[in-house]
Task: structure prediction
Amino acid sequence: SGNQEAVRLTFNNIRTKAQFAGYIGRKLEIDSVKFLEMLNDEQFVGKFGFNKETVFTVFLPNTYELFWNTNQQKFFSRMYDEHQKFWNADRKKKAEELGMTPEKVSTLASIVYWETKKPDEMPVVAGVYLNRLNKGMKLEADPTVIFAEGDFSIKRVRGKMMANPSPYNTYVHTGLPPGPISMPSVTAIDAVLNHEHHNYLYFCAKDDFSGYHAFAETLEQHLANARRFQKALNERGIN
Result:
């Protein structure tokens, strides 16, 4: 009779469009290669107001119900509808107050997400990056270097990595990268929109490996914090 049950599709923490295409290809009757080609098709994504760098911001981590035989165009349209519902008048207003588009907010959120997994700390980290952007300082975010390198096993950013000319490397280029460095989480997006107001310009991981960070207003304070963390890394043999 053609009756079928909906598939529950859950996704989060996905780094790249290629990884996402592979995942969707395993969960739905969608050709992963063709789906990735569609996401990189400037003409197609342009109809929705995106380019191949920003299109990943369409997808919001959640659980969705879809039919297994949903084709790639219908899947994208469904995700776009969910994206439009999420970016309601309140969120758009907050983005405008920051002088940012939803795509830029999501791009920054993707960096914040990989800097800290602590929801209570995300608004503080977001505030640091917004302070740096407002002062015309480079973000110098390690997760952007790792994304530019394409090696997500890297635990410690150093040396030649920081000189990678990729437009995603915020140690080289001022401002935000051209698009997100992962699928941005809803928590991180809201952390940017509702960031904490403070004077911090720097932060580094705490040397107790708690997952939290030490924040600083001056470079001198930051270097002292960084030395403590680097010493802790060396003692644990983390390269």
About this structure: The chain has a mean pLDDT of 94.
